[in-house]
Amino acid sequence: MKNLRALAAAAMLGLGSVAVAQQADTSLSYYLPANTSYSDAIPTPKQLLGYNVGEWHASHDQLAMYIRLMADASDRITLTEYGRTHENRPLYLLTVTSPKNHQNIEQIKELHRKLTDPAASGELNIKDMPAVVWMGYSVHGNEPSGSNAALLAVYHLAAAQGPEIEKLLEETVILIDPSINPDGMNRFASWVNTHRSKNLVTDPNSAEFDEVWPRGRTNHYWFDLNRDWLPLQHPESKGRLAKFHEWKPNVLTDHHEMGTNATFFFQPGIPSRNNPLTPERNFKLTQQMGTYHAKALDKIGSFYYTEESYDDFYYGKGSTYPDVNGAVGILFEQASSRGHAQESENGVLSFPFTIRNQFTTTLSTLEAAQAMREELLAHQRDFYKNALNESKKASVKAYVFGSEMDKAKAFHLAEIIRQHQIDVYRPKDSFKINNVTYTPENAYIIPTEQAQHRLIEAMFEKRTSFQDSLFYDISAWTFPLAFDLDYAPLTGRNFKSSQLGQRIDSLAFPAGEVVGGKSNYAYAFEWHGYYAPRALNQLMDRGIATRVASDKFTTAEGKQYDYGTILIPVSGQPVSAEELHRALQEVAQQNGLKVYALHTGFNPQGIKLGSPMMLPLEQPKVMMLIGDGVNSYDAGEAWHLMDERFGMRPTLIKTNDFNNVALGKYTVLVMAEGSYRNISKDKLRSWVQQGGTVIGMGQAAKWLSDNGIGNITFKEAKEDTLAQKPYADMSNTNGAQVIGGAIFETKLDLTHPLAYGYTDAQMPIFRSNTLFMERSKSPYANPVMYTATPLMAGYISKPNLQQLKGTAAVDVSSLGAGKVIAMPDNPNFRAFWYGTNKLFLNSIFFSQIIRGASARADEDAH
């Protein structure tokens, strides 16, 4: 009976039975609109690939070959490479429009950009302007129906004949990004094609539907590129955003997949979860476009839903970033076959069927954009006019941020802001706000009276009240807090436009230098600079001996040096004094640091250079566990930080191999968020006792606690003892207790090695879990604590906020000769949380000098 119901459901939804799935229709006629003729001069996908679309999963190189061929074959298409992935795969953008439009493409582009300039947009005649539609496919590599549908979209737009297609191409410029994540796409295609049987196996237990860790969703460093539209930490995102702002599209589609037992979703999402900075008109236009998708899906018999899931709150997603840039972003979510054909609650879901839905809504988007062309163009024009008018009425007239001690970190924030087409200035003169002095050398000012006013507010606001308590993604991302920079909103009382100095059109990385010439005695650099750990690691790579100051000192020249200053003696090095000086010049320039030549060890104040408080350092030998049970996002963020940004060489060890690896040559073990049931806790404990350092983040810290590795305790979750509640409210009630991502205030012990390089005892931390770590009984074990009023931005329920107050953000405990460092939060979140990166790096470089509480007590007694 159950099988009969499944077959009936399959027939109703057009998914096909098991037998049909094994012979799924992959002919062009299955996908393409009826009554449309196609030019024989344009090659079909099969003519190049050797198979029909949907018969196999196209790899990225096959997709790239086809679109290059189409750009050569059709006068409707031009092709641009906008970047390269971490694995050196090309990122392509196709411009598809009429040959006539191609002849005037630069003029069209320039006129369209003027639409976003309130000073020029009123002069434009939008009746004659084409709409610009950006089609983005498969930002998640294991959601392949989008990229495979792109093959059909390119063929259809190049080969279709007749007045209908010619009118569409005359009235629109279509930008096709066929594979936003080539590295992930290739990883996934290789897996499912390798495990495809000649006779398709639809059993969900088949290996074909269970790709190995880290799976194909993410890019090379295991980042979700659909969260990188605002942070811009990866080459895929940087190149794509440059093209986005070059064109300023009216519509951007974002083609995804969801669970196999679902149907098809198109936006808008849940209305109460829209970002309040997005105008209501955007939601109405999205709804209006939805009627075109519904009509098209009805025609082919596909089930769908809308306004019941997902949201448009976090502006760092592909379907939401356009909304704060005067465009309409549309998320499509197709139930995933996760292979070639898989049984589902709705019958057998075939890969060709998933592709057809994505292609169908590609065409319905183009139909809607053409029909609504003037409305969309008017919306974009009015969006920027209204934003500028709002900025003139806003109480905040500018934001200032900077750092006297860490110019590199401020530079990187300014770099991100500039990429979003926001004007950035230096202050004309120094000024003081809230006891912080901002100078033309160390600060940047963002006036809010500009067309990107709403995006500026989105990046700088600290919102703590919300219409809805559920979020599909994070609820806060305040950029100056993420970078842990001094910053302030400036009102009309303390800001005038005359304070603006030079507008920055191109940013230069902060200059580094060796100050004081060549020394025959020693050199030193402070740990405040963001890239100080990279400088130290570069010196260690060359075998240069270094020490770290565990106390402050002042040299004869009168310069004061903070905790964590790195000392480089001249004598006893494997290189000559001249070679050392040259090496330090290179390191200083590469890392934006000032290295100071010291000519005597007799400091007038503080410790002397030969003091026992100048502790020798050894280069850490880092291993990180990856694989089954490990959260690939968190592991990828740590890997990216060490490898890409700081030039370190962590050894990646699979959890399944840990028990067989000789650990003696490693000094530090990184355990990202995850469960570690397969590793030997006895082997790990023994390694720590012999002098190793283990860094556990998120659930890894909880695993260490549960297994008695380190003296770490967590609060027990409190049971809700309230009365009976409506069943219909269960999802929302439980969801409201989730901390999806918010920002909290902590207090640092600036004398602790894990806090070296920080100058402000107050530090923002990003949190996205409900792990609450108890304060240690040792008074020295918690260098970072949550304050009594921790919420800075984002959503947290009142019970969870009460639980969080006064808990530990970091715990350091001794185990034999080794250290256990527990961090419930992720200090490397999405690569843009620069402010807490140094906590993680200090754990790697300075755990070797941390003394246990008992050792400190013994020393003091003597």
Describe this structure in words.
The protein is of the alpha+beta class and 862 residues long. The strands form 9 sheets. It has a 9-stranded mixed beta sheet, with helices on both faces. The protein is globular and about 90 Å long. The relative contact order is 0.08. Residues 1-21 and 854-862 have low confidence and may be disordered. This is Zinc carboxypeptidase. Its cofactor is Zn(2+). Pfam families: Peptidase_M14.
Supply the key terms.
alpha+beta, Aminopeptidase, Alpha-Beta Plaits, 7-stranded mixed sheet, disordered C terminus, Class_I_gatase-like, signal, Zinc carboxypeptidase
Task: Draw up the topology in text.
Layout: H1 2-13, H2 18-21, H3 28-31, E1 37-38, H4 45-49, H5 60-73, E2 77-84, E3 90-96, H6 99-103, H7 105-114, E4 131-137, H8 145-159, E5 160-161, H9 163-171, E6 172-177, H10 182-194, H11 235-247, E7 251-258, E8 264-266, H12 280-300, E9 328-335, E10 341-344, E11 347-350, H13 351-371, H14 373-393, E12 396-402, H15 407-419, E13 425-427, E14 431-433, E15 436-438, E16 443-447, H16 453-460, H17 479-482, E17 486-491, E18 500-503, E19 513-515, E20 522-525, H18 532-541, E21 547-549, E22 553-554, E23 560-561, E24 566-569, H19 577-591, E25 594-598, E26 605-606, E27 614-616, E28 622-626, H20 632-645, E29 651-654, E30 668-671, H21 681-689, E31 693-697, H22 699-706, H23 730-735, E32 742-748, E33 762-767, E34 784-793, H24 798-804, E35 808-815, E36 818-823, H25 837-845, H26 853-861
Helix pairs in contact: 5-8, 8-13, 12-13, 18-19
